[in-house]
Amino acid sequence: MPNIEIHGYVNREAAGVLAEDIFKLFADHPCVNEMVVTICDTVVLDKDRHSQPFLRLVCSDPKEAEEIIPRLCSLDLDVEHMQLQAFYLKKEKNMEKLFASLGEDEEDEKSPRAL
Length: 115
Fold this sequence. Notes:
Layout: E1 3-7, H1 12-25, E2 36-39, E3 54-59, H2 62-73, E4 78-83, H3 92-102
Parallel strand pairs: 1-2, 3-4
Antiparallel strand pairs: 1-3
């Protein structure tokens, strides 16, 4: 699931418009149904205290990132890409697989499942 983070927009309304523009930009792309846009409450300044908003793409599929980044660059903002190692769906069956792959015992008091 690609996550596009919006950083440095102090005006929430403008950030919301940008989020809508991002979804429109990807309306014809297969990833749009899984894509999320996160509006981050951040202030991004350079050394002269000028605002430097940017977009951050976080996703685990390098091929998908190669398709997404050029479209994001067309928005005339800096774009940062963070390669995500993995993404785990919140569905219970997937969490079972996660704990099994990590070698955690459900009965272990320190297991996240036990908390």
